[in-house]
Amino acid sequence: MTPEDIQKLSEGHDLEVKTAAGQHGHGELPKDFWPTYSAMANTDGGVILLGVEEHRRGQFCLHPMSRPEPVLKALWDGVNNPQRISENLLSNADVCAMHVEGGAVIRVNVPRATRRQRPVYVGQNPMNGTYRRNYEGDYCCDAETVRRMLAERVEESRDSQILQGYDFEDLDSTTFAAYRNQFQARQPDHPWNSLDKLEFLRNLGGWCRDRGSGEEGLTLAGLLMFGKLRGILDAAPQYIVDYQERPAPVAEARWIDRITTDGTWSGNLFDFYRLVIQRLYRDLKVPFRRERERRIDDTPVHEALREALTNTLIHADFSGRISVLVVKRPDLFGFRNPGGLRVPLRDAISGGVSDCRNRNLQKMFQLVGLGEQAGSGLPKIYHNWREEHWRPPELQERKDPEQTLLILRMLSLLPTETLAELDRRFGPRFRKLPENTRLVLATTAIEETVTNDRMQEITSLHPTDITKLLTRLTKEGMLESRGVGRGTYYVLSGSDTPRFTTAMFGEDGSPVHNAGNSVHNAASSVHSGQTQEDDTPSEERLSELQVLAMTMVEKRRTDPDHMRRAILMLCDRDWLSVKQFADLLRRSYDTMRTHYLNPMVRDGDLLLRYPERPSHPRQCYRAASHGTRVNE
Questions:
Q1: pLDDT for residue 57 is more than 70
Q2: Which residues contact 550 (CB under 8 A, 6 or more apart)?
Q3: Cα angle vertex 259, ends 256, 261, to 5°?
Q4: Using CA atoms, how far apart are residues 30 and 309, in angstroms rounded to an integer?
């Protein structure tokens, strides 16, 4: 293995490197191995390399261990010790010592933990030993996140809870009658059509009896599907469903039509589905065709939109801190639900594996013909979008707050307008490029950025070949690389900092606000408050800070007081993250956080951008006194 091999690996995996030199330089399992193991297991898995150092921004240097055997023994002893880590996810194939010149580097593949294994935590207490990953390192989860993991672990279905004090008075009778009519129209000979309303609701999973205690009553699924808004909010205070139609293909949060929980309609999921699906269908170009003398107005696009909307509702975590949000734009449809995927992303896309968060809701929708069989909804969406020769859907997970995003673009892989734009930009050399290379550039132009993962969805190329292709386009000046490691993305050369497509959902899941009119605009008061201004430094400003940092750390590299003065000068007017400080000052992430930033916060020298949540994954720091301490 060479540093170049590690560089390629870092773009295809969540990668963490540790020198693991130990006191005498022969090799030792570092103490921070276990928080990284926990963080990767609780996120998407990853690779830990022991015997490698990262100098700055993806530049790696080998530090082989002369005696890897004690390190391997300590690793296996620890992973099998419940006092050390709660779950052993590793098999023999996940750990190997790779011999390089001068010794060995140990590679550890950490799998993503299943829902029933999470949280994977260090020590005995999940509340203070559970970690997750972001692109800046490992962070300790807050109590809310841990409690949600624990609930997901033990509750097969989150909507089967019996609600105390609720009865049929909390249901909207018009909604319930409309559902029964649709059920009967679809299945006129079904024996449930003769049942009274209580037994019908019981068979749907909307009313349940606990066989142990004898308690019975309305379930959360029944209330969410058919309830009145006030009752729903009493049971699920964070509940918001939101549809917004945007007038232009930009991330700007303007809307011209909106449906949300504003009290002008029932507010339940069945009515939300019925109101929204008609708006999603509106303006679709439907080809005229006949089948046995009957006009057919349904298309693969209609079917995909039904699946996407249904999936959004049945997989939502209604205890989460953000809303269900559906966005319609001239160029795409966007769907967001609170809660992450219960299965790995690739398994969700390929299908065949089902772990629905709200199984009773899933059943209710399926009984009236909405929603595919278990594990086949997303593959159906991907298939139908492919039939239209449009760009593959984008499925993403976000953390803190947990949410799942699905974006369906109504654009071809190589639109004529985009090709013409690239032809004007790059001239004759663009026309001579192979198709996959042009596809990379077209994707970057359409989606503003491109990543290795995204091109895996669009092409059949191997991840290593994609990395080589992206690197070559960067060297040729057609792309620019941004970010580090798994967070690396590319933009067209000379482009401004991109406004990611997912920004249309609001930064960090924040609600978006109106700049237009709507017949359903009374709910704007529900979404009061502004998204925090993004005043982190630009790429140009970071370059200036890099020059400043180089002049300071070269003067006295090891003096702690001098390092503190350097930190205060760098963040005199900018919010900087731990990773940015570590890169600028050429120190490790943990050293910077543990020995400098945390003590300086306690001493009042630094301010936290998110003071109410010190472990916030996007935590940043700024000088408290705006430079006065630097000149002391």
A1: no
A2: none
A3: 140
A4: 46
pLDDT of residue 602: 82
Q: How far apart are CA 111 and CA 94, in angstroms?
A: 8
Q: What are phi and psi of 447, to 5 degrees?
A: -100, 5
Token representation of residue 391? 């760009």
Fold (CATH) for 239-409: Heat Shock Protein 90 (3.30.565)
Distance set, CA 38 to CA 113, 132, 478 (Å): 9, 7, 39
Measured distance CA(410)–CA(421) in Å, rounded: 19
Question: Could you write out the DSSP letters of every residue in 228-268?
Answer: -HHHHHHH-TT--EEEEE-SSSSSS---SEEEESSSSS---
Structural contact between residues 218 and 165, judged by C-beta atoms closer than 8 angstroms: no
Where does 463-605 have alpha helices with state H? 463-475, 539-553, 560-570, 578-585, 589-591, 598-602
Do residues 407 and 501 touch, judged by C-beta distance below 8 A?
A: yes
Residues 6+ apart with CB under 8 A from 91: none
Please tell me the predicted confidence (pLDDT) of residue 390.
Answer: 93
Distance CA 52, CA 388 (A): 47
- What pLDDT shows up at residue 8? 65
Q: What is the residue extent of each domain of the chain?
A: 3-154, 239-409, 416-504, 539-623
In 10 A of CB 70, how many CB atoms? 14
Q: Identify whether the C-beta of residue 623 lies closer than 8 Å to the C-beta of residue 605.
A: yes
Q: Which of 288, 277, 160 is nearest to 225 (CA)?
A: 160
Structurally, what CATH architecture does the domain formed by 3-154 represent?
2-Layer Sandwich (3.30)
Asked if 359 and 316 touch (Cβ cutoff 8 Å), the reply is no
Using the predicted structure, report yes or no on whether residue 533 has a pLDDT greater than 60: no
Closest CA to 45 of 339, 258, 361, 344: 344
Residue 526 confidence (pLDDT): 28
Q: Evaluate whether 386 touches 457 at the Cβ level (below 8 Å).
A: no
Which CATH architecture does the domain made up of 416-504 adopt?
Orthogonal Bundle (1.10)
Distances in Å between the alpha carbon of 610 and those of 146, 463, 529, 573, 593?
19, 36, 16, 16, 15
Which of the four CATH numbers 1.10.260, 1.20.1050, 1.10.10, 2.60.40 does domain 539-623 have? 1.10.10
